[in-house]
Amino acid sequence: MDSLKRLKQEVWRANVGIYRAGLVTMHSGNASGIDRRCGLVVIKPSGMDYDKLRPVDLAVTDLEGRQVEGRWKPSVDLPHHLYLYRHCPDVGGIIHTHSNYATAFALLGKPIPPYLTAIADEFGGTIPCAPYADNQGNHIGEAIVAAIKSSHGRVPAVLLAHHGAFAFGPTVEAAFKAAVMLEDVAKTCHLALTLGKPKPLPTSEVEKWYERYHTTYGQKQKPSRSGC
Ligand SMILES: [Zn+2]
């Protein structure tokens, strides 16, 4: 299987995955991946039902957004994905959702501190919240990249105020995992915040959990750095 065909399968699986995981409603959200070798991006088409989506329906564009394959026009969020791919050379996959718990924090402009060991593991510190950005030009992409750079630089997800969340990673699968984990920890944090006032883990503890998770956990784990 050639690399673009494989990438289409991965992007299709991620799009179906965010739908099945309940991270998207109707047509909201999208998943994409990039083939760095040929400089092509595969992304969900605009306004298409997730449960009817087939790999052949995906749109393929170059890094400037020129469509090179697919009969359907790409997601309207393509410019934000492209901006991240152009500015974060280690990012191989991106997921955008309005998943409820993560977006509740985003709506309030609240980052999610490392309250949980699961946040330390997957996110390596506070999950930042970028300020509101409108949908013109590169405003959303710029806001996300600035949030990554002003945080600890290794976070695989950023909340976007009044909007939702972007998760990313070195592969489409890693981005999908970050999107699922983001919603899971946001839900737990929301529940805890209704019960009391949780305290973030100290930085030294966050580092221990992050280090272990990215060196010895699992069978073959690679660090999911943002690359920005
Ligand atoms: Zn959105």
Estimated share of beta-strand residues = 5-15%
Strand order of the largest sheet: 4-3-2-1-5-8-7-6
> What's the structural domain tally?
1
Helices, by number, come to 7
Q: Rounded to an integer, what's the Rg over CA atoms?
A: 17 Å
Sheet with most strands: 8 strands, mixed
Distance between the termini: 30 Å
Looking at this structure, what is the CATH superfamily?
Class II aldolase/adducin N-terminal domain
Kindly report the oligomeric state of this protein.
Answer: single chain
Give the CA-based shape: globular
Portion in helices: 40-55%
CATH topology: L-fuculose-1-phosphate Aldolase
The CATH architecture is 3-Layer(aba) Sandwich
Mean pLDDT: 95
Element string (H = helix, E = strand): HEEEEHEHHEHEEHH
Structural class: alpha+beta
Q: Which CATH class is shown? A: Alpha Beta
Could you characterize the architecture of this molecule?
The chain has 228 residues and is of the alpha+beta class. Helices cover 40% and strands 15% of the residues. It contains 7 helices and 8 strands. Strands 4-3-2-1-5-8-7-6 form an 8-stranded mixed β-sheet, sandwiched between helices. A hairpin with a 3-residue loop joins strand 7 (157-160) and strand 8. The chain is globular and about 50 Å long. The model has no long low-confidence stretch (mean pLDDT 95). The chain binds zinc ion (ZN). Zinc ion (ZN) binds next to loops.
